[in-house]
Predict the 3D structure of the following.
Amino acid sequence: MNLDAFKKHVEQLRHNLETVIVGQREVMDLLLTALFADGHVLIESAPGMAKTLMAKALARVVDAGYSRIQFTPDLMPSDVIGTSVFNMKKSEFEFKAGPLFGQLILIDEINRAPAKTQSALFEAMEERQITVDGQTYPLRAPFMVMATQNPIEQEGTYRLPEAQLDRFLFMLKPQYPSESEETDILERYSGVSNREVLQATGHVITAEQLKETQQALHRLTVRRSIAEYIAKIIRDTRRHPAIYLGASPRAGLYLVKAAKVWAAMNGRDYVIPDDIKYLLGPVLEHRMILNPEKELEGLSLGQVLEEIVSGIEVPR
């Protein structure tokens, strides 16, 4: 693929996103990485951190079908995937597609819905299809789920199943802005609604262009030494004494996909160990579980990953 053309496209996407979001450059770059890697993203932070605005801004720059689903405790699977409705004129049932049949899907407060509704997402996120009443409906490509959740307010929430967490490429955790960034936010947006902010940007890439770029990036190759490096990291997460649940083989595959995109965004058609190290946290941490006693001691998954990486020889 033409890396120079791809980098120019990425720069235009960054520019349009930055007209909406002040700061958060690292989070926005990882959102773009997930977009081109054909992966789903879970955004977790305290209220008021523009999680929903980030997802909406990304949907805004891509000319594709967009849906928003507000998850609530009373939401049913049929509210998400759709249901069969009896047509009196034709005397037969017709399937009415739900909002999950979009392309860029924003699920706000995903942890508000119970397990039954969460399970409705499993097939769509992994297999890009939805089965209802024995009939399978393929989803249009590209298909990306962007979900938000608040880690602070836990009343009325449900922990996401591990199988669902494993289907997210990244978990992103936006940080509070610096003082100068917060001043810029106050100056720029104090008298403007989110709707007006989003109208300041427009489409940069079509769904077909995005699909073609994703396919070209997937075809990039990864040296065997890099694949071995990733495999050693993944394997060591499963046998480290501080970790109760290690990373899955899917995590390793997702790490490779993300690393290819990250390398291309940095002007390379090959992956280097630094790409892997940079992406380890966003790809692996939400898939792993610390032993409870280690968590009580104040140990973090980030510290464990650093320890694992430091014990593995870096390929040359």
Remarks:
- The chain has a mean pLDDT of 89.
- The chain has 15 helices and 13 strands.
- The chain has two domains: 1-180, 220-316.
